[in-house]
Design goal:
two-stranded antiparallel ribbon; alpha+beta; single chain
């Protein structure tokens, strides 16, 4: 994350975009312990999309950015569901970092694709501080089938001994989450 966020309008930009940012409910870990993650402004989001060679429309930023924020809050809620299995050892997990990997599909996404399912439009890896122990979660982002704005988030522990243990415990308890 840059020290000074890029809030400068792009060269070819015609409309001014908001530079206001929203504080999330997601606690930061690591060297920023005690603070909360702050979502990008419309201008920052637009600049990031341009930098990644997307073709963003300025007029869409007022809708896209709030959706982005809501989706991230839902990701965190789903991670907290998984982290609930560790509540006795860690009452407050924190997000240390996240990494976008839009074209690095998870093994699960690739297997589902072989069976005819669409690939996710994005993937993130989120690293969570579980009271001194870093654990990684993978998130596959899928578009919904409703025709409107809808998403499906597949949030699960990454494949590791601990992650597989959590998946197995959840499967044993609920019948879901193994894969």
């Amino acid at each position: 994350m840059p020290i000074t966020p890029n809030q400068t309008p792009a060269k070819d930009q015609k409309e001014l975009l908001s530079i206001d940012r929203e504080v999330s409910t997601i606690p930061m870990g690591g060297k920023h312990d005690g603070k909360y993650w702050v979502y990008p402004s419309q201008q920052m989001f637009y600049n990031a999309m341009k930098r990644k060679n997307w073709d963003p429309a300025e007029k869409d930023m007022g809708v896209v950015v709030p959706i982005h924020n809501i989706v991230n809050e839902e990701c965190w809620r789903k991670i907290l569901e998984w982290e609930g299995m560790h509540k006795t050892s860690c009452d407050q997990p924190k997000l240390v970092k996240f990494i976008g990997k839009p074209r690095e599909y998870t093994p699960k996404a690739r297997i589902l694709n072989l069976f005819g399912y669409k690939l996710p439009f994005d993937r993130h890896d989120w690293v969570v501080d579980r009271c001194g122990k870093e654990v990684r979660y993978v998130i596959d982002f899928y578009g919904g089938n409703t025709g409107g704005i809808s998403f499906f988030l597949d949030v699960r522990p990454a494949i590791s001994w601990d992650g597989l243990g959590d998946r197995w415990r959840r499967f044993w308890k609920t019948g879901t989450g193994l894969f």
